[in-house]
């Protein structure tokens, strides 16, 4: 048996008095797409941010490809080269073109020369369907295009794992589809993804597992069929039916 | 028949235009040197105020408060007559104006660095950039652009405040004007000082226009929303 690609083992995190993660454990294998759902404030973003150490955990361990990455002597920059992140608010570099956003890491972190970086950058923009917008600046792009650049930027580093924190929730409804389509393509290509999202269409069709987080604990963790059709915990069913209603009201 | 006083006084200005132009040259050189010194000290100071911590940050903040709270005239007199930092009036004036400008420029850059949203820095860190590199490659280029309007203001202030160097006898534009008027041609006072004012105005106008150009040149297409 090979190691899981990502493993969280009894992870705790608090902010002051507030316990945000209370003993979170799960594993995912290479190629898995796990979708994290849960109410606002349940700790979803915190959990993702602990994986690439934008947030430091209090106790527990996180393993990437067999290596403990929460050791004090782990080089966080090395870790982050292997774990891409896509943000809710895109966080594109405003002074750089789409191509510049994608190539900055290749040049400054991977040390590639400009020509090679641009060549690879184009390929990644192509992968998200934006090679024709290579020279556009973020402010000239639609929300959906911005998020696709954000995905290309993360992909360009050739990470072992991609983290998505509500990648579509800042988008107008009509722009959600283009981003979800790109994420589906990546899932089909076998890219390992840990996705916080309430896009149930994506979860149903692309998720290997769904993780339901509530109040800093994993309440339920299983394949989509199980959670949607036969939730083990009462709270899971309640949360999912509330999601459905909210969706229908839109 | 003696020429009209008015005519003769303008003639006096024109005759001495070469002296006024030399003074203008000193003013321009003093402005450039002071702004440059102010930038070299003020930019790092602003960065320390935003990203620094501990004693260094407190020292920089305190120096800024003291410099901004002291009249320029006092600074320049103190440096020249009190501390005798240099026997050269030009060097002393550059240090005085440069230090004071650094204190103001640090605030321009501090505001500009803080205005770049935190998320971009986080995104840069998330692709594996170190903190220093992320600040340098992502925050600083945007902050410098946003500093241009404040910098433009500071430039104008320094340019006009170079005239304070008159108190230590530096031969800049105002001093030259003053010397001409005191050298026996006191009837030409109005003409001399109008000319001096006009030269300051032209210098200010030209620098402002050039900095406007710079602002346009470096503006980000589509605006700054990422
Ligand atoms: N940097 C921080 N400092 C203090 N408290 C924080 C910080 N980040 C998160 N929290 C708190 O931790 C809790 C969990 O936050 P988190 O952002 O992980 O939730 P979430 O599940 O992502 O919520 P949402 O669906 O609203 O994004 C919240 O109560 C939040 O206020
Ligand atoms: Mg969140």
From TrEMBL, chain A:
GO CC list: plasma membrane
Segments forming domain ABC transporter: 6-240
UniProt keyword Ligase, yes or no: no
Position of the signal peptide: none
Keywords of the record: Amino-acid transport, ATP-binding, Cell membrane, Membrane, Nucleotide-binding, Transport
Membrane topology: Peripheral membrane protein
Annotated SUPFAM superfamilies: P-loop containing nucleoside triphosphate hydrolases (SSF52540)
This protein's record includes keyword Membrane: yes
Record's subcellular location: Cell membrane
GO molecular function, one term: ATP hydrolysis activity
Major localization class: membrane
Domain of life per record: Archaea
Annotated CDD domains: ABC_HisP_GlnQ
Similarity comment text for this entry: Belongs to the ABC transporter superfamily.
Protein name in UniProt: Glutamine ABC transporter ATP-binding protein
UniProt source species: Haloarcula japonica (strain ATCC 49778 / DSM 6131 / JCM 7785 / NBRC 101032 / NCIMB 13157 / TR-1)
Automatic annotation (TrEMBL), chain B:
Primary location class: membrane
Domain ABC transmembrane type-1, residue spans: 24-211
Any Gene Ontology CC annotation: ATP-binding cassette (ABC) transporter complex
Location(s) in or outside the cell: Cell membrane
Gene Ontology terms for molecular function: transmembrane transporter activity
Entry-linked Pfam families: BPD_transp_1
Keywords of the record: Amino-acid transport, Cell membrane, Membrane, Transmembrane, Transmembrane helix, Transport
Annotated transmembrane regions: 20-51, 72-99, 188-206
InterPro entries reported for this sequence: AA_ABC_transptr_permease_3TM, ArtM/GltK/GlnP/TcyL/YhdX-like, MetI-like, MetI-like_sf
Annotated GO biological process: amino acid transport
Topology within the bilayer: Multi-pass membrane protein
Family to which the UniProt record says this protein belongs: Belongs to the binding-protein-dependent transport system permease family.
Name of the protein in question: Glutamine ABC transporter permease
């Amino acid at each position: 048996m090979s190691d899981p690609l990502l493993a969280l083992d009894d992870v705790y995190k608090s902010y002051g008095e507030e316990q945000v993660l209370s003993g979170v454990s799960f594993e995912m294998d290479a190629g898995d797409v796990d979708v994290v759902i849960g109410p606002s404030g349940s700790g979803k973003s915190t959990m993702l941010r602990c994986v690439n150490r934008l947030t430091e955990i209090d106790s527990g361990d996180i393993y990437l490809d067999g290596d403990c990455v929460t050791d004090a002597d782990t080089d966080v920059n090395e870790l982050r080269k292997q774990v891409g992140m896509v943000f809710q608010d895109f966080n594109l570099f405003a002074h750089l073109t789409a191509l510049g956003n994608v190539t900055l890491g290749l040049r400054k972190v991977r040390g590639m020369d400009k020509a090679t970086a641009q060549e690879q950058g184009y390929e990644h923009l192509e992968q998200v369907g934006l090679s024709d917008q290579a020279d556009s600046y973020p402010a000239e792009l639609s929300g959906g295009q911005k998020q696709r650049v954000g995905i290309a930027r993360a992909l360009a580093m050739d990470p072992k794992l991609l983290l998505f924190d509500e990648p579509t929730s800042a988008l107008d409804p009509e722009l959600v589809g283009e981003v979800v389509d790109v994420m589906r393509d990546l899932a089909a290509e076998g890219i390992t993804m840990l996705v916080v999202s309430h896009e149930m269409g994506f979860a149903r069709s692309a998720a290997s597992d769904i993780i339901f987080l509530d109040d800093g604990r994993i309440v339920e963790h299983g394949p989509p069929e199980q959670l949607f059709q036969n939730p083990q915990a009462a709270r899971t069913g309640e949360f999912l039916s509330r999601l459905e209603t909210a969706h229908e009201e839109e | 028949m003696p020429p009209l006083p008015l005519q003769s006084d303008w003639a006096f200005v024109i005759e001495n235009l070469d002296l006024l132009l030399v003074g203008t040259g000193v003013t321009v050189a003093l402005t450039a040197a002071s702004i440059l010194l102010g930038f070299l000290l003020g930019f790092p100071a602003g960065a320390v105020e935003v990203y620094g911590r501990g004693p260094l940050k407190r020292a920089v903040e305190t120096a800024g408060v003291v410099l901004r709270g002291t009249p320029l005239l006092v600074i320049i007199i103190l440096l020249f007559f009190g501390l005798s930092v240099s026997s050269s009036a030009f060097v002393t004036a550059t240090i005085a104006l440069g230090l004071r400008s650094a204190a103001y420029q640090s605030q321009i850059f501090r505001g500009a660095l803080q205005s770049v949203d935190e998320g971009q820095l986080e995104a840069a860190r998330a692709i594996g950039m170190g903190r220093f590199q992320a600040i340098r490659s992502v925050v600083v280029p945007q902050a410098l652009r946003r500093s241009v309007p404040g910098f433009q203001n500071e430039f104008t202030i320094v340019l006009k405040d170079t005239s304070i160097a008159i108190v230590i006898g530096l031969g800049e534009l105002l001093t030259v004007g003053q010397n001409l008027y005191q050298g026996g041609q006191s009837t030409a006072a109005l003409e001399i000082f109008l000319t001096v004012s006009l030269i300051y105005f032209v210098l200010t106008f030209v620098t402002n226009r050039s900095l406007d150009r710079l602002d346009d040149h470096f503006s980000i297409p589509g605006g700054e929303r990422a």
